[in-house]
Amino acid sequence: MTNAKNVGKASFWERNRLSGGYLLRKKVIEIVVSVCRFILLFGMCFLILQPILNKISVSFMTEQDLFNPIVTNIPEHFTTANYKMASDVMSYPKALMNSIIISLTIAVLQIAVCTLVGYGFARFKFPLKKLWFACVILVILIPPQTIVSSLYLHFRFFDILGIIKLITGEAINLRGSKLPYYLMSATCMGLKNGLYIYMIRQFFRNIPEDMEEAAYVDGCGMLRTFLRIMLPQSKPILSSCFLFAFVWQWTDGFYSKMFLGSTPLVSTSLARIVDSLGAYIQRISGIKTTISVAYSNCILSTGTLMIILPLIVIYLFAQRAFVESISATGIKM
What we know:
The chain is built from 17 helices and no strands.
């Protein structure tokens, strides 16, 4: 064993001498690149994990620990009362259930309609196809805040070609209900729908058309070919888009405040947690008190962890499928 190592070592230095030092320079460069890569990856992981670890530490601290200069990361007086406080202020059980139902149904509806539209753009020819696809790109590029006034007026005085006003004498007010959001998602104007259409279109464009032609020869129609041939192959991109849709809907504040303001959700409840904290404490104690900034931030950090915890659980269960779908999508796109 020792002789083999000596021979290999001698062989390396001999080959390095014969190559004019090239092998040694190559080895040194590989080591330097590996060290730099490790430092960069460690720095990126630290930047991502450090705020989360800090929030976890703060969430278990009492108000006394927050003002103790000795306490930095490990609480001196460990407590779980902050989680109960945040849960009560946000109405967490009800908001959690509403968020699960709305995020799940909206995500399924968005992916269903975006799959049909993306497949149509990838496979069929129709008038003004490039113009309509340019509109899809505009949906991605233009922020929804620029059309907030139009959306408000459209659903505040909702009408279909003047038919509703002709029959009832006035337009319908859809503000404060879930229906406008479902209508927008069903017509591919919901949150990030343009991006899903683009991703699905790119995926279908990279599938050979010979498979569809063979299905047509075997007697399959367009719909059956789509359901039996194309959809099973599109599981990677559909799973990726579904997870994106669910997570973005879970943390969305713009559309939720506009259309679902009367429905308690985890995202909207977190946005109001600091303002609601003082009123909650006054209601249960009967005494008007001033909430310190440190304690308000502590409850805010606790509420943030309670919101991202379900997403972490989903990722743990869907990690393998999600990574595989991203890898397959990246190769084919």
